[in-house]
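Long-time lurker, finally posting.

We've been working with sn-glycerol-3-phosphate import ATP-binding protein UgpC (bioreactor metagenome) and I want a structural starting point before designing mutants. I don't trust myself to interpret raw outputs, so I'm hoping someone here can both generate the structure tokens and explain anything notable. Sequence follows.
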Amino acid sequence: MTVFDNVAFSMTIAKKSSAEIKMKVDSALNRMRISEYAGRYPSELSGGQQQRVAIARAIVNDPKLLLLDEPLSNLDAKLRIEMRSELKRLHQELGTTIVYVTHDQVEALTMSTRIAVFFEGILEQVSDPIELYLNPATLRVADFIGNPRINFIEGTATSVYQKGVVEVNSDLGLMVFPEDQFIEVPKLSSFPIKIGIRPEKIIINGVGNGMVIDAEVYTSQPAGSETILTLHCKTSEIMAKLLGIHRFMSDQTVKCEFSLDDINIFSSSTGKLIKRAMNKE
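Top reply, 14 upvotes:
Generated this for you. Predicted structure of sn-glycerol-3-phosphate import ATP-binding protein UgpC:
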């Protein structure tokens, strides 16, 4: 079948009129920007064009709900970026509810309005993409979302009830938070925690507006648009992500700066988020 016949197949089976079929197929092909390929056969199309045909066939009947199960998994990186853009534009134009299943967290974060994260069939968190990234509900979600991965640092939290604060001690130093910033504070006076901080939230050799610690460069990985640093801070290994090309030597000592507002704290015993990062956007 040609591209036109392929997209029209469901309407043909439903015995729709030729005029209605032509109108809706032309509209679907136009939306997917493949009108000029209407007379071609699948073997004459690229992988990205074939994927557009499949989506055009799915939307030709103006569905109220569109189910997409890893639709971009067989495409190369360049085509995936292109098709992500097309699908997001299509969603805005159609206003159709789309349930999109993917293992690619970049697809999930860039395309969705709501994300549901499942592990082993169990729903772990439902949130909008920004909230999910800034405040993952559990250690598993935090570790899954983000590239490079989030930094985890072991520590101990102590409730100082008479001052209404929680003191957190780790390789990042002593941090003091108002108790009301915590979702919950275990009733123990002292308890094990894990600090979470995103690599892009760590500033190297900044002006000193936040908390500053010393670290040694283990490796530096310039990648054109960004530079990834692996750093050793006492017994902890952390990663920092810098925009642009930066050059560092192995074993070089640098100043790492970060804001307490960007810190997540998780209970080590339950794995749940107990202190949220602040969304400044």
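Before you design anything, note these points.
The mean pLDDT is 92.
The chain has seven helices and 15 strands.
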